[in-house]
Design brief:
The chain is an alpha+beta fold. The protein has one domain. Helix content is about 35%, strand content about 20%. It is built from three helices and four strands, in the order E-H-E-E-H-E-H. This is YneQ. It comes from Heyndrickxia shackletonii.
Length: about 100
């Protein structure tokens, strides 16, 4: 279950994806499959080659992309790896508890 984002934040993320940018959206998240995770960051781009290349930089496999018919395909980042990647990208949010 996702929570902690506004409709404007979601719209901004989608517009960035539509422009072919690598876009980040972090929100609080609860899922019984990942009880240690408190948040998730969705990293999307409508240019799948660009998204795969970005992911490869961090050791993410192209098979891990969630392919969506609506054009908002993305990686999901969780836990320690999420925090490491966001720190590397310079976009860590001090208000989010990542672990």
């Amino acid at each position: 279950m996702a929570f902690g984002i506004t409709k404007d934040e979601l719209r901004t993320w989608k517009k960035s994806i539509d422009r072919g940018e690598i876009a980040f959206l972090t929100h609080y998240w609860l899922d019984d499959r990942f009880p240690e995770a408190r948040s998730v960051t969705k990293v999307g781009c409508n240019d799948l080659h660009k998204l795969q290349k970005w992911g490869a930089k961090y050791g993410l496999k192209k098979e891990w992309i969630h392919h969506r018919k609506d054009g908002y395909s993305h990686y999901d980042l969780l836990g320690t790896r999420q925090k490491e990647i966001l720190e590397s990208e310079g976009i860590i949010n001090k208000h989010i508890k990542y672990l």
